[in-house]
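Dear Dr. H.,

I hope your travels went smoothly. While you were away I took the liberty of generating a structure for the chain from your last submission, since the lab meeting agenda had it listed for discussion. I wanted you to have the full record in hand beforehand rather than looking at slides cold. The sequence, exactly as received, is reproduced here:
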Amino acid sequence: MRTIPIAFAFDSNFILPAKICISSLLMNAKAGTFYDIFILYEQEQVDEDFDKLVTTYGNCRIQVRAIKNFEKKHEVRNVTTATYYRLLIPKLIPEYDKIIYSDVDVIFQSDLSEIYETTDLEGYYVAGVNSLSHLNVDFDSYYREILHMDSTRIIYGGNLILNSKQMRDDHLVERFYEHFEKKYKYQDMDIINIVCKDRIKYLPPMFCYTIYINYCLIFYDQKKGMYTPQEKQDAITFGTVHYCGPKPWNTLCANFDIWWEYYRKSIFFDPVFYYQFYLPEKPINRKRSFLRKMKGICFLLLKTAKR
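The corresponding predicted structure, in token form, is as follows:
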């Protein structure tokens, strides 16, 4: 039995996405994989529905680590204070020297045991996926001109593997705290890249397959050669889909059908909520032209046919 520790941080606004995220994790676990799941939350209890995941799948343990006396921090783009909780993991979860962290606006499409076990963090603080910030004019100028950083080396903060032992040894949590009051545009992501600079290991794009990476892998000629054809295919086919930006349970976005597929297969499926998303009178559908609606339907049908 392989035990894979993984932590999630969220607040009351993301209870449902968290349920579907963890459901997808457990649905795709290989035989012999056991997930030791930690929920970083503002209270001792989250929702009794999480216990149903343990009884349904049996290949996990779920426990809450309450975040106490943590003052409200800088919030931007509707990203709340809970986003900073991941920076406390080395101290909040001292029983593990190496641990995965994930946001909950995520769908897992594969087992995480291989990438966890094969990622050697000797000499590194953290491993993550390059955000390709240098390919976007706004991202590039922000990191180069405002933070004075190399925009080609910025990783996402939503899917990480942490070398918690090294972080504890080098007192990184205390160094993170020094940045908590600074009004960074990308909050915890910026703090991680600043504090862990030069001790970051880069992972293949399938570990954090965002909408932006999805676009870059398909359309950016400038990125040719950054990843192998196999890495690109793995990301598109089996990647951990991270919806940083538009949320599929609220609106249409790239790969929204994947989230709804896992929602429909989950023990939390509610047909009323499911079908209301597609009702013609729903505001998000009224705003779309007939042509765009047809393109969306055709895209969904083609994607479903290929599965």
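Two observations you may find useful: The longest helix spans residues 290-306. The first strand starts at residue 2 and ends at 9.

With kind regards,
E. W.
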